[in-house]
Design a protein that fits this description.
This protein is α+β, with helices and mostly antiparallel strands. Helix content is about 25%, strand content about 30%.
Amino acid sequence: PSESSAAPAREFEIVYEDDAMLVINKPAGVAVHGGSGISFGVIEQIRRARPEARYLELVHRLDKDTSGLLMIAKKRSALVKLHEAIRNDHPKKIYLALGVGRLARDKIHVKLPLFKYTGAQGEKMVRVSEEGQSAHTILRVLNRFSGGLLYQAGLSDLTYIEATLKTGRTHQIRVHMQSQGCPIAGDERYGDYQANKRLQKIGLKRMFLHAAELHLNHPLTGEPLKLAAPLPPELAQLLSTLKNQQAV
């Protein structure tokens, strides 16, 4: 049997769909496609769930542990147009992230080039390096948490951030936040190991990174689209716990 026939059919929460494209709200913990030890991902599962669909291709990627908006083209013409838009850094992509630490300012433009390399276990890694590709992320603080519950859990500061991608490099937000001394909560690759263990005790079982908004022009009609996926319940729950303890 081929790789895709092994994929169980699965439908995902649909945020937008027409005959040109499909945008889903991807859960955390699901790879977008098979490969590197994973026999199937979102795209194989959707193809399996829609045997009648003639064309389904990923437009871009999300890391396995990131949740949120994922675009899938249903026509080759739409894929070509969306790729063209991405090359011109057009779709505005807004993410929500919780950082471990304090961001110095309420709004920071991080413009640090990113270089891809292979880690010790053969995993894809990225670091800031002059040899890398240019990358630009805008980080804006939405909320700051400290004391109380965090203090009891052995954590100092947490910063809730809206990250807007101006370029779309691999692991861009994760490495850019790490570069600001504020790595993403629950990030096993670029995060703070001790802090992540402590965060698990207060309910964070995954990386706190969510692709929340996508602003783009429809690939075929040019109509402006503003798509949004709410924070998954487990992340929203942690935020409300943090907010409630602030109020004490």
